[in-house]
Automatic annotation (TrEMBL):
Ranges annotated as spanning the membrane: 12-34, 84-103
Organism phylogeny: Eukaryota, Fungi, Fungi incertae sedis, Mucoromycota, Mortierellomycotina
InterPro entries according to UniProt: AB_hydrolase_fold, BD-FAE-like_dom, Carboxylesterase_B_AS, GDXG_lipolytic_enzyme
Name this protein carries in UniProt: BD-FAE-like domain-containing protein
Keywords: Hydrolase, Membrane, Transmembrane, Transmembrane helix
Record's keyword annotation contains Ion transport: no
Species, as recorded: Dissophora globulifera
Pfam families: BD-FAE
């Protein structure tokens, strides 16, 4: 055997082994994505969740990559020569059936969301039809899942600290901590200073110790299309004082927004706080701890009230007496985040509900392996028994933790639904072009066609 033949043989063997490995991993992850199986180890669950989200939200893309890999093996002659590759090819047929099931299940969300939108239309008088297979732009969105902000001006890394707060943060946690105390503002091109548009104040998740303000998801473009101002906030991820530094940073950012947002066309008296996972927990607490002096050091007299809450996969119960969370979230929160046992109850939104509350919407996937969906069910039930404000709950079929961050049919259906809820409660469906077709129903075309430019 010549050196060239040996090189070709080794290359084909590596390709065959890579294909076999990819096939096995994909099959296992597809099973996990369908069943929502979890381990007792949080870090393992985080990795599984990230991978399963890709399969659940983009199953057709995964199938396409597998087909391309198989075609390459066929063209190079590796497939015919390797029994192992042929065996895993048939395994991938089984995996493809699972991926098709995941794709089909994502459309159960369309039925759920449409049912809610039909109910909402009875009050708002605007009927919204969610897009499906017959929509050209639906396929554009499916085949091009990148979700870049458009038709807006982005003001990045605006500091929200005072000079005294920056010096204190630098002394305790270093210069990097000060750099984390910033926010981004997305201002639609059609909005000018003084327009008094509603503001969506978004806080990212990441277990209070990681994450970035750059991750908002398809909801960002949806709200920009309605001329909302979107503010995305970073906060200190590693601090010697521990939690609730993160919550107090978000209050500092809210203080800044209330003082300055008119310059960007926002209304400081019409702010909806939103977030996912840990960010959802802080969104709920911003509403329930407004104007509490101990959480507003140095700006005790500032108004930090908000008008509404939108939570995605929100952490609403840190106590978890029922032990729904099989990787012991309580110990992790105490040891790595808060350093104090008392914060479990004090900072669990489930136990802070009182008074009238504010209009709220909670969205949670039914196979979330990081934040138990049972906690959100209990939270919503307790909210309805305790508060007089309305609350809407959408439990998303096949949704993993923070599924909404990936641009997919499921996440776009939810983004459209959330945007309609936000517009109904806080903007009266502002600036929407409506075509009356039959005198009884009205169709919002910007929403039906995803808001994606042709």
């Amino acid at each position: 055997m010549s050196l060239i033949d040996l090189s070709i043989y080794l290359a084909r063997s590596i390709w065959a082994l890579s294909y076999a490995t990819a096939s096995l991993v994909t099959m296992i992850l597809t099973w996990v994505a369908i069943t929502g199986a979890a381990t007792r180890y949080r870090k393992v669950n985080i990795v599984l969740c990230a991978l399963c989200n890709q399969l659940s939200e983009l199953p057709l893309s995964v199938m396409c990559m597998d087909a391309c890999f198989y075609t390459w093996l066929t063209v190079t002659g590796t497939f015919q020569e390797s029994l192992l590759a042929r065996f895993f090819y048939y395994m991938n047929i089984i995996t493809a059936i699972g991926l098709i099931y995941l794709f089909r299940r994502s459309f159960q969300v369309q039925e759920l969301a449409q049912k809610y939108l039909d109910q909402l239309s009875k009050e708002s008088k605007y009927w919204v039809e969610l897009p499906g297979f017959t929509s050209a732009r639906f396929w554009q969105q499916l085949l091009n899942p990148f979700n870049w902000p458009r038709d807006c001006t982005i003001y990045e890394n605006i500091p929200y600290w005072t000079q005294e707060e920056a010096l204190r943060a630098q002394r305790s946690d270093g210069c990097k901590a000060v750099q984390e105390m910033v926010l981004d503002i997305y201002q639609p091109h059609s909005v000018e200073a003084g327009d008094d548009r509603p503001v969506l104040f978004y806080m990212h998740g990441g277990g209070w110790t990681m994450g970035s303000k750059r991750f908002v998801g398809p909801l960002l473009n949806e709200m920009l299309s309605y001329d909302w101002i979107v503010v995305s906030v970073d906060y200190r991820l590693h601090t010697k004082a521990g939690y609730p530094t993160q919550l107090m940073d978000c209050k500092r950012a809210l203080r800044w927004v209330k003082d300055e947002i008119r310059v960007f066309g926002g209304n400081p008296n019409n702010i909806v706080v939103a977030g996912d996972s840990a960010g959802g927990q802080m969104a709920c607490l911003l509403a329930s701890t407004a104007n509490q002096p101990k959480l507003q050091p140095g700006f005790e007299d500032k108004d930090t009230t908000v008008q509404g809450v939108l939570g995605f996969s929100a952490v609403v119960n840190l106590v978890d007496l029922e032990n729904y969370n099989n990787h012991n979230c309580r110990s992790r929160f105490i040891k790595e985040v808060a350093f104090h046992l008392k914060f479990l109850t004090e900072h669990s939104p489930r136990f802070r509900l009182k008074g009238p509350g504010v209009p709220s919407m909670m969205i949670h996937g039914d196979i979330d392996t990081l934040t138990p969906v049972q906690h959100t069910r209990d939270f919503v039930k307790h909210f309805r028994n305790t508060c007089t404000a309305p609350i809407t709950y959408l439990e998303v079929p096949g949704g993993h933790h923070c599924f909404h961050l990936i641009s997919s049919p499921r996440s776009w259906y939810i983004a459209i639904t959330a945007s309609q809820w936000l517009n109904y409660h806080f903007d009266g469906i502002h600036n929407v072009k409506v075509n009356t077709q039959d005198g009884t129903k009205q169709q919002i075309h910007e929403i039906v066609e995803w808001g994606w430019p042709m």
